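In the current project phase, the collection of sequences with tokenised folds has grown. A sample record is quoted in full directly below:
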Amino acid sequence: MASISKNDLILLSDMQSISTVIVCRNEADAISKTLLSLRGLSDDIVVYDNGSTDNTKILAQQQGAKLFEGSWEGFGKTKKKAVSLAKYDWILSVDADEAIDEELKQSLLQLQFPDTETVYEIRFKNFFADKHLRYGEWGGDKHIRLFNRKTVNWDESLVHEKLVLPPGIKIIRLKGFVLHQTVKDVKEYAEKTMHYAFLNASKYFLLGKKSFRLKILIAPIFGFIKYYFFRLGFLDGWEVFICARMTAFYTFLKYEKLRELNRKK
């Protein structure tokens, strides 16, 4: 049996009672960087894999994560299931392509957790390939990603899942950033856009929402103008032009697919 060194004991004593929870599928290109960034934060990193066919599961285990496997039930339900597998009640929820920077890690290590009625918001730096996007849709991004599961948890949405926050919850913003490798290239971006558009159309359909031809025509144009001009996306160069165009395409596909689903009904 291997002995624990003095340095290992010091490292363990500095860790937080936080469980990091990651839901993933085929993220071999990104998950190692994410797991490396989390090293020294907690002794409980949960990776809930939904059918990877690449090296994701092997890499997760090599980095010391606790690997679980299960079926995909939509974003909300699947994340909720993954949270239930955690050792601790305080949950840091990250995606496989979301590493944390050193400032954020230190912020997390210094937290005292005053009560379960508090959640923690984290700022994001989103990247298109190697380009940090400071403006447009992805600029100034922030999300609540640290919460106590006794008080807060995910809803059961098929897509665009949200944390259900009870009345009176306190939100504190942490120092530091999540470094989100959003897409590697235009091809991957287009594939994700179509996938999420169809998922969201299905979600809207199940909620009984309707789509009209005028909305299909106007909403994409408004989206492009909003993110490229009003949110100063043009200052980030051609990458944000692509992002704004893709957002318009996503909006068109979503409402066109919703119209098609309602027509078939």
